[in-house]
Write a structure and sequence with these properties.
Layout: H1 3-6, H2 29-38, H3 41-44, H4 64-89, H5 98-110, H6 121-133, H7 137-142, H8 146-153, H9 157-166, H10 177-183, H11 212-222, E1 226-228, E2 231-232, H12 236-259, H13 265-276, H14 282-286, H15 291-322, H16 337-352, H17 355-384, H18 391-397, H19 402-410, H20 415-427, H21 431-441
Antiparallel strand pairs: 1-2
Helix pairs in contact: 2-5, 4-5, 4-12, 4-15, 5-10, 5-12, 6-17, 10-11, 12-15, 12-16, 13-15, 17-18, 17-20, 17-21
């Protein structure tokens, strides 16, 4: 792989471009990507999607939207730091700036969660479960290829995100290939049997069969290295997007836990001080009157430290990435890796398994199961088993949005494509809208 090809400004479905700057010369093509994402509906919907903790009545905690904005900010810094060093190393990249690298990582990081369904990661499991265990599963499975069935029974938010970012190419986002590839942490498909989960790029999967052709075209245009049929190496900047996410959820979830009283001040302070090492100045910290302000300052310096460490690891391994010989998380190799692992273990026990998180997850399973069952049956019976299409199913079908109905009527050519449209609809809901519709469907709320 080489950086000139990897930093392609080409957009899906458009004529070839070579200039990183837009026609107005005010914004680079990569900055345009950022703007398109931030104004998009999938991104806006993140404002009412759970990150980890249910939204409390008073104290602020992060939603998917605020988390994504912070990951993007960290990603932009990582990209600019790395870009400055790469431009010194590769003089032939003089058409680019450090800001271009920052814009690609920042845009990809901004979009990294757009495919996640309501109620956090439990939403992905709930979607997978309904296809695996519902009585209609056998009928659906028989109508699909094994790799299509794997998309539904192992639903993946990353693949859903790629689907959202690449669909409807006439009026859609039309992101640059560089940003799309940097977004893709898992450049393989769901049914890849030789997947080695010890490799970070194969731990999950990054595209559905419905987008397989688009993904292959993107990979070939960028010069990503193919490691197996329909499987490629990562774009190197995807490692920075992943690092930005790892940094933010490690540190910010801890801060949220402190704000909600799930972690003590001393525990939070000690974790962050361990990252700062010699930068930690307890005497200076004591001059800050509020414990929340103290943690806020420590959090900011800790993130800055992790950005510096991650940049160095990226640059040390950049040539191996280009050769397809590096496939690890950057944050597993930084000097603070051990303390991040301690924070992770602590968070799993004390935050992610706290009662309020588990209650939200349990409610999410119930809501998503109820919505999917209703819409899957209504759609399947209407289009593929009309003898079973009852008055109840007709009423439920009429609740689908116009755009979903149009695509079911005009674009879906198989049960697989129809089911993906239903998962598009349900996974795109906010927590609040999903709960509201569930209550209506179950007759709980008729107002």
């Amino acid at each position: 792989m080489n950086w000139k090809a990897l930093m392609s400004v080409q957009r899906l479905g458009e004529k070839k471009k070579t200039d990183a700057f837009s026609s107005q010369k005010l914004r680079s093509e990569f900055e345009v990507d950022y703007d398109r994402i931030i104004f998009s509906r999938p991104f806006r919907n993140l404002q009412d999607k759970t990150q980890v903790f249910p939204l409390p009545d008073q104290d602020f905690v992060h939603t998917r939207l605020t988390h994504s904005l912070e990951v993007s900010s960290v990603g932009r810094s990582l990209g600019k730091n790395a870009g400055a060093a790469l431009l010194e190393k590769y003089p032939e990249l003089d058409h680019l700036t450090p800001g271009d690298f920052g814009a690609v990582v920042g845009a990809a990081a901004l979009a990294h969660d757009v495919g996640n369904p309501p109620f956090g990661h439990s939403g992905e499991t709930a979607i997978s479960d309904i296809f695996q265990h519902h009585p209609i599963s056998d009928q659906l499975k028989q109508s699909m290829r094994p790799e299509e069935w794997a998309d539904l029974t192992d639903f993946e938010g990353n693949a859903q995100g790629f689907r959202l970012l690449t669909r409807n190419q006439r009026q859609g986002l039309k992101l640059t290939l560089a940003t799309l590839a940097a977004f893709t942490k898992y450049p393989c498909y769901s049914a890849f049997e030789q997947r080695d989960k010890k490799k970070k790029s194969q731990k999950k999967y990054g595209y559905f069969q419905s987008e397989a052709e688009i993904f292959e075209d993107m990979a070939q245009d960028l010069g990503l290295l193919q490691v197996a049929e329909k499987v490629w190496t990562r774009h190197p900047l995807a490692f920075l997007v992943e690092a930005a996410d790892d940094i933010c959820y490690s540190i910010i979830d801890l801060e949220d836990g402190f704000g909600l009283g799930l972690v003590s001040f001393e525990q939070t302070k000690n974790f962050l001080a361990s990252i700062l090492k010699e930068k930690f100045q307890p005497a200076k910290l004591e001059k800050i009157p509020s414990d929340k302000e103290k943690i806020g300052v420590l959090r900011a310096v800790a993130i800055h430290t992790l950005i510096e460490e991650s940049t160095q690891v990226f640059l040390q391994n950049e040539e191996a990435m280009l050769a397809g010989q590096f496939d690890q998380a950057i944050t597993d190799l930084i000097p603070s890796a051990d303390i991040l692992e301690e924070i992770s273990k602590f968070s799993i026990k004390n935050l992610y398994q706290s009662r309020q998180v588990l209650e939200k997850e349990a409610a999410g399973f119930e809501v998503i199961d109820g919505l999917l069952e209703s819409f899957i049956l209504a759609v399947y019976f209407k289009y593929y088993d009309q003898a079973s299409y009852s008055g109840k199913h007709k009423s439920i079908f009429r609740l689908l949005p116009e755009d979903i109905v149009y695509r079911l009527d005009h674009e879906a050519k198989s049960p697989y494509q129809s089911m993906l449209l239903i998962t598009d609809y349900v996974s795109g809901m906010t927590d609040g809208s999903a709960i509201k519709l569930f209550r209506i469907l179950k007759g709980i709320d008729l107002n």
